[in-house]
């Protein structure tokens, strides 16, 4: 395995890109979907089960691991990979999202953010330098620079101030990250839905220089149409020879639309969170397994799916264990959702390699438009 981080672009079809991110812990096939393991676990899944779905990389959360069990403890125990029994690559976010999502528990300054823990009320300071230190202690393969973004909608002045603060923090993150062969640092573009701010942010990040580039500040309340309008140009502002990561996205049609527009990597809690609440993603759209129509249905969720939930269990059983609040429900439905998301990624990779992405996308949307199979 290579001892340094690198990205190879193998093929393009329109703006859609096929590539490989190489790390000392293994290759990441792109386009890639990263399951979210917030607290060093993908909820309801064993690590080997996550790997069986086809995932090459997981995402961990700096803020949550900083609070519990602490980065220092994880470091003493051999690092995050050993701690959670996942030897493939891990990307850690910087804690910047919690700057937005926990706005009522923090104080924001030029230096960084002071948090009040949502667990016990204790106070913690998170700065670009501290974020880099935490992610170093965790041992993540891909480190995200520390940023701040407002929820949308927001006025132009608020977006501009936030973006420029994030660019100053990006420079500090780069300096604090230092030289770490085999590990990568990604910068994060901000700017809301304002094209001139996105251009300014991208120029600042390119001047600093990163191993990869993320598009942040989307999927935060703006809606799919506005997100796609931004993605029509935002990936093109970033270097062609570096991976591009759209943060926090999303639903299957969001993912396909992002890849169509030049995105290489995505993450989202949706497959696991939806699985725990009885929402299942299939080729023919969303299925709510809690609905009574499934109670006597002997068929699988998706007859074409090879995941354990579809291979071995009926809709009637899955409906029963969900309504009975049995743990196996979240396990099976999460496994199915993650499996389906990875099938989407493999389908797009194959289509780009064979220069048939438009045909694949048309079939994807047409099949979803059919809706779920009729009740028995």
In the predicted model, the low-confidence regions spanning at least 5 consecutive residues are none
By CATH, the topology of the largest domain is TIM Barrel
Derived structural class: alpha/beta
Alpha carbon gyration radius: 20 Å
- Helix tally equals 15
The top-level CATH class of the largest domain is Alpha Beta
CATH architecture of the largest domain: Alpha-Beta Barrel
* Order of adjacent strands in the largest pleated sheet: 4-14-13-12-11-10-6-5
Got a strand count? 16
Helix content: 40-55%
Strand content: 15-25%
CATH-level-4 superfamily name of the largest domain:
Queuine tRNA-ribosyltransferase-like
Number of domains: 2
Describe this structure in words.
The protein has 376 residues and is of the alpha/beta class. The protein folds into two domains: 6-267, Queuine tRNA-ribosyltransferase-like (TIM Barrel), CATH 3.20.20; 275-369, no CATH class. 41% of the residues lie in helices and 19% in strands. It has helices spanning 47-52, 62-67, 71-76, 80-84, 96-101, 128-138, 156-177, 195-208, 224-231, 252-260, 270-276, 308-312, 315-323, 327-353, 357-369, and strands at 6-13, 16-23, 26-30, 32-35, 58-61, 90-93, 106-108, 113-116, 123-126, 142-144, 184-189, 212-215, 244-246, 265-268, 279-282, 285-288. It has an eight-stranded parallel β-sheet with strand order 4-14-13-12-11-10-6-5. It has a three-stranded antiparallel β-sheet with strand order 1-2-3. The longest helix is centred in the last third of the chain and has 27 residues, at 327-353. The mean pLDDT is 95.
